[in-house]
Design brief:
Elements: E1 3-6, E2 9-12, H1 31-45, E3 50-54, H2 60-70, E4 75-79, H3 86-90, E5 91-95, E6 102-106, H4 108-115, E7 118-122, H5 129-132, H6 136-141, E8 143-145, E9 153-155, E10 161-166, H7 180-183, E11 187-191, H8 196-206, H9 212-231, H10 246-259, H11 264-275, H12 282-296, E12 307-310, E13 313-316, E14 319-322, H13 326-335, H14 340-354, E15 358-363, H15 373-377, E16 384-388, H16 395-399, E17 400-404, E18 413-417, H17 419-426, E19 429-433, H18 440-443, H19 447-450, E20 455-456, E21 468-469, E22 476-481, H20 493-496, E23 499-503, H21 510-518, H22 525-542, H23 558-570, H24 576-587, H25 595-608, H26 618-628, H27 712-722, H28 734-753, E24 760-763, E25 766-767, H29 775-782, E26 791-792, E27 795-798, E28 806-813, H30 821-840, E29 844-851, E30 861-866, H31 874-885, E31 912-919, H32 930-934, H33 937-950, E32 954-961, H34 967-970, E33 974-977, H35 985-1000
Parallel strand pairs: 3-10, 3-11, 4-7, 7-10, 15-22, 15-23, 16-19, 19-22, 28-29, 28-31, 31-32, 32-33
Antiparallel strand pairs: 1-2, 5-6, 8-9, 12-13, 13-14, 17-18, 20-21, 24-27, 25-26, 29-30
Length: 1005
């Protein structure tokens, strides 16, 4: 037998007698790659399935392709998603063309078993675990019973290998942790991201012609950009998930190899396109521009864009792109206006097209690129195939399904390609719209199509087992709107990373709008009037001067303006002003609900159009514009190369200052120990998130700025000095709190949000009519053993009502005994995060604190900070924060006294009632020995009260604070927060609440 050495492991090469593809791989064996390969290969040689877990872009599939390319082994890969069903993997019956018989088609898993191939379960944790367990015999014992078919047992042939890949469940939409009874059968391998040295080594191997300096610069940009995202410095406010990794670096290297590897302007421009342009917030873009320009030493100047079409090629600045239909390309370029923002946008799109990248067009709702769609999707002359996604769609609607043939006879049923499959077969441009509306069950199905494999595996009922490949003419475009709420779904950063994001420009400047309109209408007064009114109406709507009583503000986008232009263009009459006024009411004012506001906007419209009527020849000019509008091309047909594009900024040698120069902030006079400076902190100390312990950059204002580190030891020393003056309050604002802890809170929110998401429901329904024929139902009908309900009406949805009736109440001991820096901050973090996420999922919450505020030893003071009926608004968040910062003066009380009447903490609609108690559970009189405290009268009474209320269906989570583990002896579900884990309190409590909801609420739904 022939062998090959992979990462110093001897691996057998098996003869390949199948027609399945062996995917090529350019993986470079760095030290960490070799280590990972060994972790994969040894279990493989022992016949153990492997589960690869890792972030987007770390090369999970590349590792498998590399191993199999070295041993000439085909790889069958299936992208799992939320609507994956057993027959998708195992196989199904299909109907013969003549409608007189049936044939069984193996699914990819069955083919892999039967032919001895590698099977990759891509994104395995997107699939429901109960679906995965259908083929548990495969990863447990290497066989499969074809229950969906003949019932025979398929045993694995020599060479079969089962590999699962998945992103971590934290931070990726739709991913759920796989249960242990599945993962225990796998050798789980976590694939680490590449180190900077490895990135450099890999890129140097793949692109030997590139200079080391430019590689080092772009690697530094990549690492710093990723760190900024993790810190929350960039990308935080727009709610999208950005990711820069080796895949981004390879895009960059491909680009500068194509456009000029020695050209510094190209190096700078492409760095901006890939690392700055994806961000939509101006402050994020500015930070990224500073980073890139400081690395590459210079600024990029705006240049005029020049281009023309000749000899089947689009010449666009330094780009040369083949056009498959020259006349169509010229026609498209001549039919659309191209103001400067559109030209810049087109330059980015054409760059991605030349480098054969997938392109993601993102836009604001009111800046819909649909009006310009052919300009950037059909420039290569290839027809477009639109794939429109929405919530509730089935994968078969996009990929294809069994459907009756055109003659309408039910006996004639065959496979019909969906729009995505049809586009791939015909080599068309693929435009996927509605990515933000569809769930992961649809979007992630296209993983294999959008990564290096560039192919799509069809379901077994298609009768095709070989994946279909994208053709040279095809380009994949995605369209999605900005995400403006965490409750709105978005694409995962894994999917985003397979695309090159390009933001459609916000056409808002009045001059740009006037230039755009002047392309269609005579220059001068009319375009100026339309652009001026549009800009003013948009401003009034955004400021809520109009629409202030509406829940949502009015939106006026580019589509309104072009609709207005089209009306004038179509109904051009001698009285152009009247036509323009009518068009303005159609496109703008008629949608205003308030009569007074409508009248005011109409008056404004009339004012902007004053002066239009004095241009007597305007009617004739518009008619003339119509005649000349179809001129073949208005592009300059001269030499495309422009010397100005290749100017170089001189190297001045001036270094960028490291310190920001921001104004110093006045601190508090706390006189802490030295923190690195020459003197102690004083009244002018610089503190806050800016210092981070000065980061080694001198001593601002003569102090060390140790507060920026939030170190426990410094704080304890400070408390010792000021104990006599201590008033049991935290003097800080919510803004200051979030500056220090904001990144941690954000990460916890990302981790927890999906835990509260309801599960996907797949409803299998069959009707007498429909568009998809279920083969098994049809077989039953033809054999006389079933009815005519053969059409598959399966729906996939998230039942938002599943969490209805859940209420969570927090009871927090607010006494001086347990008040210190660690626990007070931990409580705040846990409450802010938990309340935010529970509110996002419409789960009612209440917050109550308890103590003996007067230290009388005879009363219990319970303060309600939030009721279950109140929403968790920013105002309520501020109010809660203020209440938890102040007045921790009360004495402790016996906690069992709280539970005598739990009904008062919940609304009458509460169905699943969860009580989260945060205390040290040491009662009113703490004992020296922990065994005495566990066995004390107060602890025994508390345990009795908990058991009695559990019989009434109350669910308890006891959160113990401090080093004494008492909660676990009282509550069946508990956590203990100590000095070692207090920073994880928010995540721990949130995860426990989610688990309790999933366990206990399911009993009542």
């Amino acid at each position: 037998m022939e062998f090959v050495s992979i990462a110093s492991v001897k691996v057998p090469v098996l003869p390949n007698k199948t027609s399945f593809p062996v995917f090529p791989s350019s993986l470079v064996e760095t030290d960490s790659v070799q280590s990972t390969l060994q972790k994969i290969l040894y279990p493989m040689l022992e016949g153990i399935p492997v589960l690869l877990v890792g972030d987007a872009g770390v090369g999970k599939n590349a590792l498998i392709y590399y191993i199999n390319s070295r041993r000439n082994q085909p790889t069958l890969r299936f992208s799992f998603n939320e609507d994956t069903l057993p027959e998708d993997l195992i196989g199904s019956y299909r109907i013969l063309l003549d409608g007189k018989g049936f044939t069984w088609s193996n699914g990819p898993l069955t083919n892999a078993l039967d032919s001895g191939l590698s099977f990759v379960a891509d994104e395995m944790n997107l699939c429901a675990p109960n679906i995965i367990k259908r083929f548990s015999s495969v990863y447990e014992s290497n066989y499969l019973d074809l229950l969906e078919g003949s019932g025979e047992r398929i045993k694995s042939k020599t060479g079969f290998w089962f590999i699962g890949t998945q992103n971590p469940s934290e931070g990726f939409e739709g991913r759920k942790p796989l249960p242990f009874d599945i993962t225990k059968h796998f050798a789980v391998v976590y694939v680490d991201p590449y180190s900077p040295d490895e990135m450099f080594y890999i890129l140097k191997k793949l692109y030997p012609a590139l200079g080391e300096e430019v590689l080092q610069k772009i690697i530094r940009v990549t690492i710093e950009s990723e760190n900024r995202i993790k810190r929350g410095d960039i990308g935080k406010g727009d709610l999208e998930k950005y990711h820069f990794n080796l895949r981004t670096l390879q895009k960059y290297c491909n680009r500068i190899m194509a456009f000029g590897k020695e050209d510094r302007t190209v190096a700078l421009r492409e760095a901006l396109y890939l690392f700055q342009e994806p961000f939509r917030k101006e402050e994020d873009r500015s930070l990224q521009t500073e980073l890139i320009e400081s690395e590459f030493g210079g600024k990029i100047k705006s240049r005029s864009t020049k281009g023309y079409v000749q000899n089947g090629t689009i010449f666009w600045n330094d780009k040369e792109i083949k056009t498959w239909e020259e006349k169509k390309t010229i026609s498209i370029l001549s039919k659309y206006p191209t103001p400067e923002p559109i030209l810049g946008f087109l330059d980015q799109v054409l760059t991605a097209i030349q480098c054969k990248e997938n392109i993601l067009i993102e836009f604001r709702e009111d800046q819909d690129p649909q009006e310009f769609l052919p300009l950037f999707t059909e420039l290569t002359g290839i027809d477009i195939e639109s794939v429109m996604l929405s919530k509730g769609m089935h994968t078969s609607d996009v990929v294809g399904a069994l459907k009756p043939t055109r003659d309408g006879k039910i006996e004639s049923v065959d496979w019909v390609d969906g729009p995505l499959t049809r586009a791939i077969r015909n080599g068309k441009i693929i435009l996927i719209s509605g990515l933000e509306s569809a769930g992961a069950e649809l979007v992630e199905k296209m993983n294999m199509l959008t990564d290096d494999a560039r192919s799509l595996t069809l379901p077994p009922e298609s009768g095709e087992s070989i994946p279909i490949q994208l053709k040279e003419t095809s380009i994949v475009f995605g369209l999605k709107t900005y995400r403006h709420s965490k409750s709105v779904s978005t694409i995962s950063r894994a999917f985003r990373n397979r695309f090159t994001p390009v933001i459609f420009p916000e056409l808002e400047d009045a001059k740009v709008l006037e230039e755009l309109l002047s392309f269609y209408l005579p220059e001068g007064v009319l375009p100026r009037a339309l652009a001026g009114f549009h800009t003013k109406a948009k401003e009034l709507a955004e400021k809520r001067t109009i629409g202030s009583a509406n829940l949502q503000p009015y939106r006026f986008g580019i589509s309104n303006l072009l609709k207005w232009k089209n009306h004038i263009y179509r109904y051009n009459e001698k009285d152009v002003r009247s036509v323009a006024y009518r068009g303005g009411t159609i496109a703008y004012t008629n949608q205003i609900s308030d009569p007074k506001e409508r009248k005011e906007l109409e008056r404004l419209l009339d004012g902007y159009l004053s002066g239009v009527e004095v241009v007597s020849e305007l009617f004739d000019e518009i008619e003339e514009k119509k005649k000349t509008f179809t001129v073949e091309s208005n592009l300059d047909k001269k030499k495309w190369w422009d010397p100005e594009l290749h100017e170089r900024d001189p190297l001045t040698g001036e270094a960028k200052k490291l310190n920001s120069g921001n104004e110093l902030k006045r601190g508090i006079e706390i006189n802490t120990p030295e923190t690195g400076g020459q003197i102690k902190e004083g009244a002018d100390a610089w503190y806050g998130s800016e210092t981070q312990g000065n980061n080694g950059q001198g001593e601002p204002a003569g102090g060390g700025g140790g507060w920026g580190y939030r170190t426990e030891e410094l704080y304890k020393q400070f408390l010792k000095k000021r104990r006599l003056l201590w008033d049991y309050s935290m003097i800080m604002s919510l803004d200051e709190f979030k500056k220090v802890f904001g990144k941690e809170l954000e990460e916890v929110e990302l981790n927890l949000e999906q835990l509260f998401d309801p599960e996907i429901d797949i409803h299998r329904m069959y009707r007498n009519e429909g568009s998809r024929v279920d083969a098994r139902k049809y077989i039953s009908y033809k054999s006389g053993r079933g009815d005519t309900k053969i059409f598959d009406k399966t729906t996939i949805e998230k039942n938002d009502e599943k969490l209805k009736g859940v209420e969570v109440t927090f009871l927090v001991s607010k006494c001086r005994r347990i008040f210190n820096f660690e626990y007070s901050v931990a409580m705040l973090s846990a409450l802010l995060v938990s309340l935010h996420i529970l509110n996002e999922h419409d789960i009612a919450t209440s917050v109550n604190t308890f103590c003996d505020i007067k230290n009388s030893k005879t009363t219990i003071d319970i303060f309600n900070s939030k009721t279950a009926e109140e929403d968790y608004t920013p105002e309520k968040e501020q109010e809660l924060f203020n209440s938890f910062c102040k007045n921790w003066h009360g004495d402790s009380i016996p906690e069992y006294q709280l539970l005598s009447n739990c009904e008062r903490f919940f609304s009458p609609d509460a169905q699943t009632r969860i009580v989260v108690i945060l205390s040290d559970f040491r009662g009113q009189r703490a004992k020296m020995d922990i065994l005495d405290e566990i066995g004390s009268f107060e602890t025994r009474k508390l345990k009795e009260a908990v058991l009695k209320n559990q019989e009434k269906n109350y669910v308890f989570l006891g959160v113990g604070l401090g080093p004494r583990y008492i909660a676990e002896h009282v509550f069946s579900d508990s956590l203990q927060i100590t000095g070692d884990n207090f920073f994880s309190m928010a995540n721990l409590i949130g995860a426990e609440i989610a688990r309790l909801i999933q366990i206990h609420h399911s009993l009542r739904t």
